[in-house]
């Protein structure tokens, strides 16, 4: 396995654009491309500067971010799919190859976005009593925001937003409990546009304050070689063992996912190396693609960066980012453990080999050549866990990426690391007297590198391009977050969230009451069954919603609508948030719209639907673990009633249950399994996973005949044959 060349990287980018609507950028004429690149760099530099030197006033910061994001969407995304693969010629009606309508929309949405910060001093007197100009500007922003989201993310989110606005307007005509007094269009615009509970709300604020910086950091860290280091280390660690490339896929995706936070980007980047290698050692094509996509979905749940939803949790729950990272640690390990065990057992059953020694990189050489690339991640974590804000940590992580990108001289990188550590100890990290001179030194290093050699010039241009690509990757998330603000705003305006929660919990209680007639109380009482059915319905809605809505938007919608239902049943807020977050991510490998699985299938030349089904099966650990930490919240480590006894009981049961379920799917444990063994151990795995000692013991009792049978088979296989 070797690092992909330039042509492979171009092919990976095209696959991302094919399967991820957020990456389908229009080709531009050279002059327009330079203008757009300049705007993207300006957007990146705006966030980089404010992260290091202090955020602007809330409304101003969010308004500038949204003006850039939405304006750029009309320039980099076409209105129709048919136009996204061709460069349009420049003309009177299409200056620079972009239609006058798109130019007008870009300007109009930027003006409407900046209008609220402009009138901020008067806003306190206008909220609740908007002027005709306010309503006109708000209407322009809402309409163009929906169109920008349609272009960059797709139809589902705008359609949902239009539906909830119609619900707000036609409230008196709604049936039963969903009926409400209704709101006029000026009132809807007032709530969504002029208050902080709508478009300019938490979702947009988190993207503008945290998410953008970490997307940019992930792109820069990958460009300086951190992704390559992780993949090479994974190959050194696992490549030699049975089914080696598949295990490399799992470890590589876990490590790479820490900096990418994107299922599809993870799949095509790591998969470009691992999928061909898996096929070469004997895995079926659909299985190879499924392994990579299932492992890659773990990127959004793997600390320290995770996906955008992690930063939203910080704001929604009012907890530190360190708390979210700690809570995510064990469930993420459970996901990768589940995928690993199925891969390992499949390799044992099929007798697959590992990679030959000549294909394995030398560990000492990998570390010697790439150790400096881990410095940006080390700086980011050092600042983050010293109690500073996530965006300040990202600022220093990005700065470290620049240092590593332009200089691989050990004294320079270690000197930068020492300077940051010393500033933390001395309390100078946020002081201009320290920050400004250090940044000037970094800029001087960039200029020196640029002018001294062609190789240095290429390094600097590569970093500048990363600022362009990072901004491109973040603009779709910004549009989706602003549109979700419409949904959240209507929920707060109408109070429909609690009504839906009441409907869900009432229906779940009826189902639980019916089931209680067939199940003994000591196994599961009515309250536990009510919670179970509520969780089941929430999980199904999360997966269905995730088929057309990005993970971040899915999470916000479900937290707004479903989390109150779980709260009514006594679920701790952080547990409820993690539950909907996990099932939103699971949609990436759940047919019929399993985008990560389809990207992997394209790379493997496999059947997409078959790949999606297999990927979902491989990711069942991620599907079961959320139920475990709802009933046994000690797994998240940060819940109020945490005890180490509960933690070990819950985690040990989950590990054994996932292991048994993996055996059932693979048809192999210590030896080949017959049909009755697979069914019995599969059934036994479910009560073992349940975080209760009684059900765990029942599951172990059910599994005991299979364990005995497998031990006897193994003894028969290793026993010497008679002469």
TrEMBL record:
This is TRAP transporter fused permease subunit. Residues 141-639 form the TRAP C4-dicarboxylate transport system permease DctM subunit domain. InterPro entries: DctM, TRAP_DctM-Dct_fused. The chain crosses the membrane at residues 28-51, 63-80, 100-120, 155-178, 198-217, 248-275, 319-340, 374-396, 402-426, 433-451, 471-493, 500-523, 529-549, 556-583, 589-606, 618-638, 644-671. It comes from the Bacteria. Pfam families: DctM. It is found in: Cell inner membrane. One of its GO terms (cellular component) is plasma membrane. GO terms for molecular function: transmembrane transporter activity. NCBIfam families: TRAP_fused (TIGR02123). It comes from Microvirga makkahensis. Its main location: membrane. PANTHER family: BLL3936 PROTEIN.
């Amino acid at each position: 396995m070797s690092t992909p060349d330039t042509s492979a990287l171009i092919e990976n980018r095209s696959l991302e654009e094919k399967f991820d609507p957020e990456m389908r950028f229009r080709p531009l004429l050279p002059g327009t491309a330079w203008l757009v690149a300049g705007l993207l760099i300006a957007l990146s530099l705006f966030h980089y500067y404010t992260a290091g030197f202090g955020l602007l006033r809330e409304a101003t910061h969010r308004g500038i971010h949204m003006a850039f994001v939405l304006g750029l969407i009309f320039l980099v995304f076409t209105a129709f799919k048919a136009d996204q693969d061709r460069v349009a010629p420049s003309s009177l009606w299409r200056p620079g190859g972009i239609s006058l309508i798109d130019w007008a929309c870009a300007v109009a949405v930027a003006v409407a976005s900046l209008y609220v910060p402009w009138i901020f001093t008067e806003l306190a007197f206008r909220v609740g009593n908007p002027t005709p100009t306010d309503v006109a500007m708000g209407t322009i922003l809402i309409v163009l925001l929906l169109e920008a989201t349609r272009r960059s993310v797709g139809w589902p989110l705008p359609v949902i937003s239009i539906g909830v606005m119609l619900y707000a307007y036609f409230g008196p005509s709604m049936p039963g409990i969903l009926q409400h007094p209704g709101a006029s269009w000026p009132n809807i615009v007032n709530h969504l546009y002029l208050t902080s509970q709508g478009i300019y709300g938490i979702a947009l604020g988190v993207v503008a304050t945290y998410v953008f910086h970490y997307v940019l950091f992930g792109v820069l860290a990958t460009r300086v070689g951190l992704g390559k280091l992780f993949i090479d280390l994974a190959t050194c660690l696992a490549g030699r063992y049975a089914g080696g490339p598949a295990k490399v896929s799992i470890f590589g995706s876990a490590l790479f996912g820490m900096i990418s936070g994107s299922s599809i980007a993870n799949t095509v980047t790591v998969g470009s190396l691992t999928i061909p290698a898996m096929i070469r050692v004997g895995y079926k094509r659909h299985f190879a693609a499924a392994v990579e996509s299932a492992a890659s979905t773990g990127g959004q749940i793997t600390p320290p960066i995770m996906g955008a939803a992690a930063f939203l949790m910080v704001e929604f729950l009012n907890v530190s980012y360190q708390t979210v990272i700690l809570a995510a640690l064990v469930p993420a390990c459970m996901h990768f453990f589940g995928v690993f065990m199925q891969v390992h057992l499949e390799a044992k059953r099929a007798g697959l080999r590992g990679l030959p020694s000549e294909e394995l990189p030398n560990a000492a050489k990998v570390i010697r050549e790439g150790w400096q690339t881990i410095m940006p991640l080390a700086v980011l974590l050092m600042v983050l866990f010293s109690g500073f804000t996530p965006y300040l940590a990202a600022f220093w992580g990005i700065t470290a990426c620049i240092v590593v990108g332009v200089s691989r001289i050990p004294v320079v990188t270690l000197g930068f690391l020492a300077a940051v550590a010393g500033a933390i100890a001395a309390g100078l990290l946020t002081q201009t007297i320290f920050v400004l001179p250090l940044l000037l030194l970094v800029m001087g290093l960039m200029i020196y590198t640029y002018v001294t050699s062609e190789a240095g010039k290429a390094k600097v241009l590569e970093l500048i391009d990363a600022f362009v690509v990072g901004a491109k990757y973040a603009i779709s998330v910004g549009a989706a977050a602003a549109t979700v603000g419409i949904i959240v705003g209507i929920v707060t305006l109408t109070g429909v969230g609690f009504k839906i929660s009441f409907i869900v919990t009432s229906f779940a209680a009826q189902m639980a009451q019916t089931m209680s007639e067939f199940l003994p109380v000591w196994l599961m009482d009515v309250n536990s069954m009510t919670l179970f059915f509520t969780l089941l319905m929430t999980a199904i809605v999360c997966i269905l919603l995730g088929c057309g809505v990005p993970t971040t938007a899915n999470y916000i919608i479900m937290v707004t609508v479903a989390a109150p239902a779980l709260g009514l049943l006594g679920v701790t807020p952080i547990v409820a948030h993690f539950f909907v977050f996990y099932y939103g991510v699971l949609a990436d490998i759940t047919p019929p719209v399993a985008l990560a699985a389809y990207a992997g299938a394209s790379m493997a030349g496999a059947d997409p639907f078959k790949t999606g089904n297999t990927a979902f099966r491989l990711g069942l650990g991620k599907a079961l673990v959320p139920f475990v930490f709802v009933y046994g919240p000690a797994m998240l480590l940060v819940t109020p009633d945490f005890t180490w006894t509960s933690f070990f009981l819950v985690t040990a049961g989950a590990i054994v249950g996932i292991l048994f379920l993996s055996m059932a799917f693979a048809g192999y444990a210590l030896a080949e399994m017959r049909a009755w063994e697979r069914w019995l151990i599969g059934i036994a795995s479910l009560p073992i996973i349940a975080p209760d000692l009684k059900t765990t013991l029942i599951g172990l009792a059910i599994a005991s005949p299979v364990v005995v049978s497998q031990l006897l088979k193994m003894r028969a296989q290793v026993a010497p044959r008679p002469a």
